[in-house]
Design a protein that fits this description.
Blueprint (H helix, E strand, L loop, with lengths): L1 H13 L2 H23 L1
Length: 40
């Protein structure tokens, strides 16, 4: 989890907030999608 936090903090420096949330949502959706596939 610490690794992910470090990644996110790095991204936030490089992006403005709108771009960050767009990217964040996409990453979260992808992660959830991958998890649900593994569960089935």
């Amino acid at each position: 989890m610490k690794f992910i936090e470090k990644q996110i903090k790095g991204l936030m420096k490089g992006l403005d907030e709108k771009d960050f949330w767009k990217l964040f949502r996409r990453v979260m959706l992808e992660a959830v999608d991958r998890l649900t596939k593994e569960v089935r």
